[in-house]
Specification:
0% strand, Methane Monooxygenase Hydroxylase, Chain G, domain 1
Length: 90
Amino acid sequence: MEYGYKHSKKIVNRLARIEGHVRSVKEMVAEGRDCSEILTQLAAVHQAIENTTKAFLKEHMEHCVTKAIREGKEEEALAELEVAIDRFLR
């Protein structure tokens, strides 16, 4: 599939925030901070990753799948979408 996503900048920004958040959690662990605080922050990271994954899955459907359908590659596109959804729902 060809790349050139409509919302690349937003997704990259989300990933950068997640990266910073994970770094902060790592520092919290190294400093011996309270476990409940760390778990709260890990839950926030987990949710941010899920939300980013959903946003990218939507981008995949809007960009890659629709492009493949226009090019007559429906079966290939749907198979790839199914794999992507299976990975997300694990």
